[in-house]
User: What shape does this take?
Amino acid sequence: MPFFSKKTLLLAIGNASRGDDGLGWALAEALEATRRFPGDIALRYQLQIEDAELCAQYDCVVFADAWKTTAPQDCLLKPCPATPEASFTTHALSPGSILYLCQSVFDRSPDAWLLLMRGNRWELGESLSPQGEKSLAKGLDCLLEKVP
Assistant: This one.
């Protein structure tokens, strides 16, 4: 899965002031520190309709976010399909909805991946939990092993 051979965007989703909800942003910061990430990085509190236009400019998009789960793995990298979702608002959209808008409005279908990192602490003012730190390390390793 050497998807970094294409023009790539990492969309890091989260809020660094809410504990493990900041895992996406922490991953972006860690990737920038390695100087090995060959793509562009953008930070988002949440995905919004305008992000479809941004994604349309890339061949590959990786959405990185925290994951509330009881699954045993610390991180999960999986393909992210476009999904039409009915919603009464466009204030916060899923990655699949962004990709669907990218296809239907801009006629672009970038390869898309979802990188989820398991967390367990979400309170305002908290830093990453030990679980979050472990998941962050796994997420960073997972992405860097894909860099050519």
Q: What stands out?
A: The helical segments are 23-34, 51-55, 95-106, 130-144.
